[in-house]
Write a structure and sequence with these properties.
Length: 81
């Protein structure tokens, strides 16, 4: 029997001068919500390319979510039935 599960990840970006902040949230099938943030800072000599800042900040936020998911899974595996 196949089981279909979907997760929805929401990502928002905020840019302030040379700094980009990403906020990420994933809602799991059990109702758990995990949240993470990522940041990037553009060097003053770099050309202003907002997309690059979003990509770096977003990747860092998603990496944090990945680590939280691994920690959650590890804790659930260790938990006795």
């Amino acid at each position: 029997m196949k089981t279909l599960v979907g997760w929805h990840i929401e990502m928002e970006f905020e840019e302030d001068g040379n700094r980009t902040r990403a906020a990420a949230m994933v809602r799991l099938g059990d109702g758990t919500e995990l949240r993470a943030h990522g940041y990037s800072t553009r060097h003053h000599s770099d050309s202003p390319q907002l997309r690059v800042g979003e990509e770096v900040a977003g990747a860092r936020a998603l990496n944090d979510l990945a680590m939280q998911l691994l920690t959650k899974a590890h804790e659930e595996v260790k938990r006795p039935n």
